Amino acid sequence: SQPEVTKASDGSLLGDLGHTPLSKKEGVKWQRPRLSRQALMRCCLVKWILSSTAPQGSDSSDGELELSTVRHQPEGLDQLQAQTKFTKKELQSLYRGFKNECPTGLVDEDTFKLIYAQFFPQGDATTYAHFLFNAFDADGNGAIHFEDFVVGLSILLRGTVHEKLKWAFNLYDINKDGYITKEEMLAIMKSIYDMMGRHTYPILREDTPAEHVERFFQKMDRNQDGVVTIEEFLETCQKDENIMSSMQLFENVI
User: Fold this and answer.
1) Rg for the chain (alpha carbons), in Å?
2) Contact at 8 Å (CB) between 15 and 212?
3) According to the UniProt record, where is the region Disordered (predicted)?
């Protein structure tokens, strides 16, 4: 499997860094959710969780979710199966890893920072991990339960375009007031650039995140009132192939 650094450098939310839009590159419609185990294992959070449960000597990057018999079972597994797009077996594997990594049953922000520092050693992931944690922490109490964790993961990895965009809006809306400001969008973009590390994109100039934000914002803020609403965000993203392909909905930075 590819090393994280190269994998992480192919676009994600970073704007159109001279990349072919995904739909053209792969010859398939971009929206089709990838349900393979390999796609699952490209997710840092899944890798983190499953690393503790992978059988010794196995290559966990093969994307094997079929782990040895699972003893742990979360409360309401059937309900979680109905709420998410994970199979029962996948939920059991995720839960087993979650309990190994977080015996208290809760993930805090410092854990997110450690995970992302591990997967993006070439940059500073602190700020991005902070924003991402807040997007998962729906009730804002500083801790994420297993249930919140897998519901969020399910949207990001297997949700419809509409579901993923709503989640993306929530990430960008840092103060959760229902609007995205240019400053909020810039803060998220900068945090991703910082995490990717300067050498990942040696050609980038300091003002590149600001340029992307300026361009995105002009397209999204349809009534020019200085803020982007969820309606404006959804409409623009779904109509604009460049925004869709450059967002590539987090697949490389979750």
Assistant:
1) 18
2) yes
3) 1-20
Q: Domain spanning 161-253: which superfamily?
A: EF-hand (1.10.238.10)
Amino acid at 253: V
Domain 75-158 sits in CATH at: 1.10.238.10
Residue ranges of the chain with per-residue pLDDT less than 70: 1-41, 52-75, 198-207, 246-253
Cβ neighbours of residue 75 closer than 8 Å, sequence gap 6 or more: none
DSSP string, 107-153: E-HHHHHHHHHHH-TTS--HHHHHHHHHHH-TT-SS-EEHHHHHHHH
- Please state, rounded to an integer, the average pLDDT across all residues of the chain: 77
State both tokens at 151. Answer: 């519901």
Domain boundaries, the chain: 75-158, 161-253
| Phi, psi at 158, each rounded to 5° | -135, 5
